[in-house]
Amino acid sequence: MITLRKSSERRYSRVGSGELRETFDPENPRDPYRGGFRTLESLSERVLAPRTHAAVLSDAGVEILTYVCHGDVAQEDSTGARQDLGPGEWGRMSARSGSVQRSVNGSPADSARIFQYCFTPDRNSLKTRPEKRHFPIAERRGVLRLVFSPDGRNGSLRLRQNARGYSAVLDSGHHVVHELVEGRVAWLQVLSGRIQLIEQILVAGDAASFVEESAVSMTAWEPSEILLVELT
Question: Quick one: CA dihedral 67, 168, 207, 36, positive or negative?
Answer without folding.
Answer: negative
